[in-house]
Design brief:
The protein is α/β, with parallel strands linked by helices. The protein contains four helices and four strands. Helix 3 links the parallel strand 3 and strand 4.
Length: 129
């Protein structure tokens, strides 16, 4: 399955959502976290996704140290994008071209921004007040 937070412009996605995603999507093959709020703490959870082969971390808070750990623990990672991250400054290859996926293989991970949901959800629980 392919998960993309970009399909709805979901840039509010962060560490909590990433940890839940890793917990429930063990066979994930492709993940697009470009321009999300994920940090090194959340990104370390990705080491559990042994099937992951394509990863976009463009414009995230990825450090060089965590990227090295991801490369070491995810030997099946064939393509990645780490442009506009700290890790990009320390690696010669910051973009490996992604493999193509067909539309039937693609699973869109869509989240509504709080402002678009129509609910008053200040505490982030999805229950309002």
């Amino acid at each position: 399955a392919v998960v993309s937070t970009q399909s709805t412009g979901c840039t509010q996605f962060g560490d909590t959502g990433l940890c839940l995603l890793v917990e429930h999507c063990h066979m994930l093959k492709s993940l697009n976290l470009c321009e999300t709020l994920v940090t090194d703490e959340g990104l370390l959870a990705l080491t559990e996704l042994k099937s992951l082969s394509c990863l976009n971390l463009n414009s995230t808070k990825l450090s060089a140290q965590v990227f090295d750990e991801l490369l070491n623990k995810l030997p099946g990672l064939k393509s990645y994008d780490i442009r506009y991250t700290e890790a990009c400054e320390w690696h010669d290859e910051f973009v490996l071209l992604p493999t193509e996926t067909t539309e039937s293989e693609e699973l869109r991970f869509e989240l509504m921004d709080k402002d678009d949901s129509g609910d008053d959800d200040e505490d982030g629980t999805g229950r309002g007040h």
